[in-house]
Amino acid sequence: MCLKTLRGTFLYLLLISPLTIFSQSLGCWNTLNLNYDNGKKWSFSTEFQLRSLQFYRNYNYNEYKAFVSYKVMPNLQTSVVLGRYTTYGNGKTFQNPKLAEEFRAVLQVGLSNSLGKVKVDHRYRFEKRFYTSGNRASRIRYRIGLAMPLDKAKKTTLGVANEFLIAITQGSKVIRYDKNRVSIGVTRKLNDVVSMQVGYLNQYDSKSLDEPGNKFFVYSLLLNLSKSNAHHHLNADN
Fold first, then answer.
1. Alpha helices, DSSP H only, in the chain?
2. What is the Cα–Cα distance from 74 to 83, expressed in whole angstroms?
3. Would the N or C end of the chain have less CB density within 10 A of its end CB?
4. Which CATH number is 11's domain given?
5. In sequence order, which residues have a C-beta less than 8 Å from that of residue 159 and are 6 or more positions away?
6. Residue 147 resides in a domain
7. pTM of this structure
């Protein structure tokens, strides 16, 4: 299959196919990400998310978090992440009572390599979760992502990712398979500062209270405020 046909097929799947399933329970996963890289070892970013259980209505989730990252090697990066995450009840937008509200402290390791034109990213996370209810928990996460340029200028990139989330209750007595997230999307670099992502995410949920919903239309806006304009792929994050 030629590159033009492949690109057209994926653009159809991402932009046209969702229109046929809006009548189903398709939620929205919206992200604003701001990143600054000092061009050496350190980078800083912040991210805001807003999610809904129906297409741009019935908003039930928001989060905000900050990253401080250090590049150990060209393809190895470590990060500390701190964030606040809130999930509301189903029904109207941000309807009380809150199902879950938590603060997270995260240690993250990112490893990347290339297979021809395909960039492969591995992300490992260990999360400590502190709920306002007084409960505490931990979670281990692993995500593998693939990104492939769709044009010679590398301004348009196809990304796919699969993430596995394993929950550990307080005291490490119970370990359970919490979630699995599979996503596909296209990133378009509009200029040196602004990139935009459109995609689809399918989530298996063990029915924990924090973050219900299974199918999401994904839209992300990425602002690169640094001189180092690294290309982003789809980041299905929580």
1. 3-15
2. 26
3. N
4. 2.40.160.40
5. 145, 146, 147, 148, 183, 184, 185, 186, 187, 197, 199, 233, 234
6. yes
7. 0.83
